[in-house]
């Protein structure tokens, strides 16, 4: 890909900017329709990628702080945003901290998307705070960015694992845990509701008060919490190897309205089973209120814990111990409480209720059959998922089980099936490769970049230097990011229109071991001239 | 990224590393078992569950069918008594009623006699809390502060023993069973103690301590609906009198549903009834005291044997059979789906 940056000189006014934006936007739209990948126009790299779907020519936008100033002051944000939407990535160089945060806020407000900011210097703090997720890099530039951020990492390259692995895990854990808590409480409280039909709607509870309170507090609290902390539904290696799995979280595939409704229906069904099977068993007999509530309590505990066990994808020692201990603790507590409370808790005073139940075969028969009936539909659906229409995460989980060599093979097969453009999996430093959608698919919107105007000295921006779109290294695999270096000293000078002559527009690739501010080897010497402090900031969307 | 190395290599080794530990817990690399729903495990679990549930269900249904039960509704048959009891001023008038039935086959084994009530909500919240367990422990408590209100004291200040609505509404019909042997009528011997939980009789219920029972309850009065005071509940057996009377204890154990039965008596296996109840004609003689017409309730008397799995209710057996069938059918469905789709499945063939 050849890139030519147009050079315009002279004072840049709002009308000029507006007309330039309009012109560029028209051209981009035309190109987008025509799908002509090799046209060049002004500073726009004519391979555009529309925000909606797949393969079309991709554009990149480079803009500098001075222009941004004109845009914001002249009220041209909408046009700027419209242009940016057509671009694969946008590079904003030489922008002030305020401009950085204004760009983030603009994108967030208008496009209503999740924004992520990553930066390492004090000038990135406002941008970090403006975005939905702010990531600070701790290191040479000090700790201000870290203190203002939601997440702090020590190297830029850790962003990949943060998003693909920890982000995925965090979403999966939280979504499943929240759904589980809703389900658990709906199931348990509905038991009390169904009893109202048989006690004249007087508010009588058939479960002893203390056992009811401790149900949520002790007996069913640890497994879901442990699940929410430790569960790993897909292994880290697979997540790094298959970035498509990131879409799973972006599309809220675990916690949609349909999932919630299904969970609520399942909760109602399970509470119906947990109540009515004991009810019909004990109907017309001489059972008393609290001896009726005891097996219901036990059954619902077993059902709820087994439900959690079905959801858990990773069984560490902690999980096993917690599950067993929850049941054992319940039994021990019930037995002790029922052996000591003669008058301690009116009106129940469940003295010897549990012991009596444990000596009755009907209790054991109930405890065996009711969880089975209650969980049969859910188990059936889980079993079918592996056979019919497995979602990508399920395939990825199956992938984990394969030996390593076969894993890579399967990843490639999956990729080639799922993509519309072929990605060459082996990365190299040749910038003239096709852009793989794989790498960009987690990021649906162009990264904010900057449009440079009229920078005079030409360092001879060659394609190898100024590819704002992609650079891959073998170690980094398939991920895509955009970095540039910005000079601190130019931040305040932009309005004066003087450039120090040092090139702001240098997207650099990051190879392992390099910290922020590293550049491609072509530009290294050019860039280092006169830069006192370099901060690296990126706004990715 | 196995280990976040320190960022400042040139600073010398004196500075301690601020990286998190490289332990399995903190790096989230704990050894774990990842369960997979393979076709083998799924199918085997379904079929095993199905087989197990079916076999247990069949056993349960067969044992429930072995239970012999006779249930007789006597609130209709004793209509004149029930009309008498509608007026509460007739409380001290006795009313007797007879109900006949016949057994075609003898009932072998232990026979239990229950009284059954229908539409009597012992599980109503305010009813359930209306008791004082401290008083029933024989302690001297101030029942004014208990949940027994309003069944605590009379207007002249005499406390009720026992207090509360549960005790007040105790079932006070007397049922006797007679067997017509040729031309004579024999009363079937019944056991009236040993019917309640051992822990109830010995731990939860105690009579107040005194040299004799009537002085123990001195200064108290019977609840308003009772016909005799609590220390006269069973004058023949001292250990079945007062608060520890079995009928009283059983009644205080409030039942879970509006249609319930309580154990009343057990057939004593002596003389002609050593094996159970022989075939023939029987008569219940009932002293009708408990009014049920006001709340459209019904009363029954039930004779039943018991088995290890409970009573004559076959529901648990049916539930096992149904779920066993469902599990087996689901197993077949999954097998069919798997066989059909196996050719189409192209990925992850091991």
SSE arrangement:
The complex is a heterodimer of chains A (541) and B (350).
Chain A: H1 14-34, E1 45-47, E2 58-64, H2 65-73, H3 77-85, E3 89-93, H4 97-111, E4 116-119, H5 125-130, E5 133-137, H6 144-148, E6 151-153, H7 158-196, H8 209-219, H9 222-230, H10 236-241, H11 246-250, H12 257-282, H13 289-311, H14 317-340, H15 353-358, H16 361-385, H17 392-400, H18 404-418, H19 437-440, E7 485-487, H20 524-528, E8 534-540
Parallel strand pairs in A: 2-3, 4-5, 5-6
Antiparallel strand pairs in A: 1-2, 4-8, 7-8
Helix pairs in contact in A: 1-3, 7-9, 7-12, 7-13, 8-14, 9-14, 12-13, 12-16, 13-16
Chain B: H1 39-65, E1 69-73, H2 79-86, E2 96-103, E3 107-108, E4 112-118, H3 125-128, H4 133-136, H5 165-168, E5 174-181, E6 184-187, E7 190-191, H6 198-204, H7 213-216, H8 246-252, E8 260-267, E9 276-277, E10 280-287, E11 298-304, H9 315-342
Antiparallel strand pairs in B: 1-11, 2-10, 3-9, 4-8, 4-11, 5-6, 5-10, 7-8
Protein described:
The complex is a heterodimer of chains A (541) and B (350). Chain A is of the alpha/beta class and 541 residues long. Chain A has 20 helices and eight strands. In chain A, helix 12 packs antiparallel against helix 16 (361-385) and helix 13 runs parallel beside helix 16 (361-385). Chain B has one domain (59-316). In chain B, 27% of the residues lie in helices and 17% in strands. Chain B contains nine helices and eleven strands. Chain B: Belongs to the CDC50/LEM3 family. Chain B: Keywords: Glycoprotein, Membrane, Transmembrane, Transmembrane helix. Chain B: Residues 1-20 are annotated as: Disordered. Chain B: This is Cell cycle control protein.
């Amino acid at each position: 890909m050849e890139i030519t940056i147009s050079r315009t000189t002279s004072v840049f006014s709002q009308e000029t900017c507006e007309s330039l934006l309009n012109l560029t936007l028209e051209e981009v739209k035309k190109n987008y329709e025509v799908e002509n990948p090799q046209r060049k126009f002004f500073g726009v790299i004519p391979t555009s990628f529309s925000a909606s779907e797949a393969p079309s020519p991709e554009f990149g936008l480079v803009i500098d702080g001075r222009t941004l100033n004109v845009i914001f002051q002249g009220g041209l944000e909408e046009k700027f945003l419209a242009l940016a939407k057509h671009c694969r990535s946008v590079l904003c160089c030489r922008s002030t901290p305020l401009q950085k945060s204004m760009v983030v806020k603009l994108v967030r407000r208008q496009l209503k998307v999740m924004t992520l900011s990553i930066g390492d210097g004090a000038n990135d703090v406002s941008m970090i705070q403006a975005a939905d997720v702010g990531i600070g890099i701790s290191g040479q530039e000090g700790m201000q960015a870290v203190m203002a951020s939601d997440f702090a990492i020590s190297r830029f390259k850790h962003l990949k694992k943060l998003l693909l692995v920890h982000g995925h895990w965090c979403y999966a854990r939280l979504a499943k845990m929240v759904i589980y808590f809703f389900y658990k409480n709906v199931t348990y409280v509905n038991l009390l509701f169904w009893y109202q039909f048989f006690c004249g709607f007087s508010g009588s509870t058939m479960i002893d008060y203390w056992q009811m309170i401790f149900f949520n507090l002790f007996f069913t609290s640890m497994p879901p919490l442990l699940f929410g902390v430790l569960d790993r539904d897909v292994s880290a290696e697979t997540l790094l190897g298959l970035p498509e799995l990131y879409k799973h979280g972006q599309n809220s595939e675990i916690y949609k309205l349909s999932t919630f409704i299904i969970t609520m229906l399942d909760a109602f069904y399970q509470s119906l089973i947990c109540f009515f099977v004991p009810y019909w068993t004990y109907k017309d007999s001489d059972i008393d209120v609290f001896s009726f509530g005891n097996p219901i309590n036990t059954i619902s505990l077993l059902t709820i814990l087994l439900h959690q066990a079905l959801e858990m994808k990773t069984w560490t020692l902690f999980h096993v111990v917690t599950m067993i201990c929850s049941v054992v603790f319940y039994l021990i507590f019930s037995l002790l409480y029922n052996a000591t409370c003669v008058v301690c808790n009116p009106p129940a005073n469940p003295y010897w209720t549990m012991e009596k139940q444990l000596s009755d075969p009907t209790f054991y028969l109930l405890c065996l059959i009711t969880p089975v009936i209650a969980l049969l539909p859910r188990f059936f659906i889980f079993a079918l998922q592996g056979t019919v229409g497995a979602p990508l995460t399920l395939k990825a989980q199956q992938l984990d089980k394969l030996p390593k060599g076969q894993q890579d093979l399967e990843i490639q097969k999956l990729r080639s099936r799922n993509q519309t453009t072929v990605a060459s999996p082996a990365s190299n430093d040749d910038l003239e490769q096709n852009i793989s959608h794989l790498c960009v698919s987690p990021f649906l919107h162009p990264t904010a970049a900057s449009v440079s105007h009229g920078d005079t000295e030409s360092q001879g921006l060659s394609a190898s230097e100024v590819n704002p779109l992609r650079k891959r290294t073998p170690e980094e695999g398939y991920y895509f990011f955009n970095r540039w270096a910005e000079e601190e000293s130019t931040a305040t000078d932009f309005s004066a229109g003087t450039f120090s002559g040092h090139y702001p527009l240098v997207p650099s690739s990051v190879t392992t071991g390099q910290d922020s501010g590293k550049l491609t080897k072509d530009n290294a010497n050019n860039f280092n001239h006169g830069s006192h402090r370099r901060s690296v900031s990126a706004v990715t969307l | 990224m196995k280990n976040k190395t320190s960022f400042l290599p040139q600073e010398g080794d004196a500075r301690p590393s601020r990286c998190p530990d490289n332990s399995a817990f903190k790096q989230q690399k704990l050894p774990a078992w990842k369960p997979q729903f393979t076709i083998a495990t799924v199918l085997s679990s379904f079929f095993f569950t199905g087989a197990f549930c079916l076999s247990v269900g069949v056993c349960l249904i067969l044992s429930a069918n072995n239970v012999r039960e006779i249930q007789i509704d006597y609130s209709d048959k004793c209509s004149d008594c029930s009309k008498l009891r509608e007026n509460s001023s007739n409380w001290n008038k006795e009313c007797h009623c007879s109900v006949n039935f016949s057994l075609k086959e003898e009932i072998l084994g232990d026979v239990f006699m229950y009284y059954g009530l229908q539409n009597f909500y012992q599980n109503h919240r305010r009813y359930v809390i209306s008791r004082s367990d401290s008083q029933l422990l024989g302690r001297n408590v101030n029942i004014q502060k208990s949940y027994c209100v309003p069944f605590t004291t009379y207007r002249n200040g005499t406390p009720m023993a026992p207090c509360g609505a549960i005790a007040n509404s105790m079932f006070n019909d007397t049922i006797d069973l007679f067997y017509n042997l040729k031309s004579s009528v024999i009363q079937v011997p019944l056991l009236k103690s040993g019917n309640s939980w051992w822990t109830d009789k010995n731990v939860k219920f105690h009579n107040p301590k005194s040299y004799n029972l009537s002085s123990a309850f001195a200064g108290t009065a019977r609840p308003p609906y009772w016909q005799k005071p609590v220390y006269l509940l069973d004058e023949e057996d001292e250990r079945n009198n007062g608060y520890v009377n079995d009928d009283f204890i059983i009644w205080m154990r409030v039942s879970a549903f509006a249609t319930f039965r309580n154990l009343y008596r057990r057939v004593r296996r002596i003389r002609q009834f050593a094996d159970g109840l022989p075939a023939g004609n029987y008569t219940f003689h009932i002293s009708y005291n408990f009014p049920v017409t006001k709340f459209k309730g019904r009363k029954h008397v039930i004779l039943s044997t018991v088995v290890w799995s409970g009573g004559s209710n076959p529901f648990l057996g049916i539930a096992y059979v149904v779920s066993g069938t469902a599990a087996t059918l689901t197993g077949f469905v999954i097998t069919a789906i798997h066989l059909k789709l196996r050719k189409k499945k192209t990925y992850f063939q091991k």
